[in-house]
């Protein structure tokens, strides 16, 4: 049974709310989403949440009534808020996992492992990692592996907060 929240007029719009719309990673995703959406008669509207959970909620309150679906990219909102939004509109998360909500993920753990092993194999003895924004779920996944791989491979890591 379809919930009342999903019984809405078809707008032909899929909203994409990104934590930082100027990030080249999100721009590429936006372009791919727009291409795929256009083949189905939809358009994607990109909105910048400026790395803020508060701004994300404000933006969502304004755009959700005018969209048929939502791509929520690396949201800084807490899981409860994301669940609340997903009850209002069909939602797919990007670069963030929340139980019970579909997501598309980058394998940060494996990517970090491969990058560290490559650098150590090239003779690096010191690797500096400049951390992503505060409360970034994806950044937190990148922090886990370098120390394990680096210490096992005798590399020294310096972590800096952005």
UniProtKB/TrEMBL annotation:
Keywords: DNA-binding, Transcription, Transcription regulation
Coiled-coil annotated spans: none
Domain Periplasmic binding protein/LacI sugar binding: 14-136
Name of this chain's protein: LacI family transcriptional regulator
Keyword Transcription regulation among record annotations: yes
Species this protein is from: [Brevibacterium] flavum
GO molecular function, one term: DNA-binding transcription factor activity
InterPro entries attached to this UniProt entry: Peripla_BP/Lac1_sug-bd_dom, Peripla_BP_I
Pfam families: Peripla_BP_1
Organism ancestry: Bacteria, Bacillati, Actinomycetota, Actinomycetes, Mycobacteriales
Keyword Transit peptide tagged: no
């Amino acid at each position: 049974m379809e919930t009342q929240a999903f019984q809405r007029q078809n707008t032909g719009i899929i909203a994409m709310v990104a934590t930082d719309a100027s990030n080249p990673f999100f721009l590429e995703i936006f372009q791919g989403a727009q291409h795929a959406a256009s083949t189905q008669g939809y358009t994607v509207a990109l909105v910048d949440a400026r790395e803020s959970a508060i701004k994300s909620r404000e933006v969502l309150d304004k755009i959700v009534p005018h969209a048929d679906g939502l791509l929520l990219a690396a949201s800084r909102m807490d899981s409860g808020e994301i669940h609340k939004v997903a009850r209002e509109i069909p939602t797919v998360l990007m670069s963030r996992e929340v139980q019970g909500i579909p997501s598309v993920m980058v394998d940060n753990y494996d990517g970090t492992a491969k990058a560290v092993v490559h650098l150590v194999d090239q003779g690096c003895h010191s690797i500096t990692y400049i951390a992503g924004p505060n409360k970034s779920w994806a950044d937190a996944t990148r922090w886990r592996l370098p120390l394990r791989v680096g210490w096992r491979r005798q590399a020294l890591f310096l972590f800096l907060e952005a």
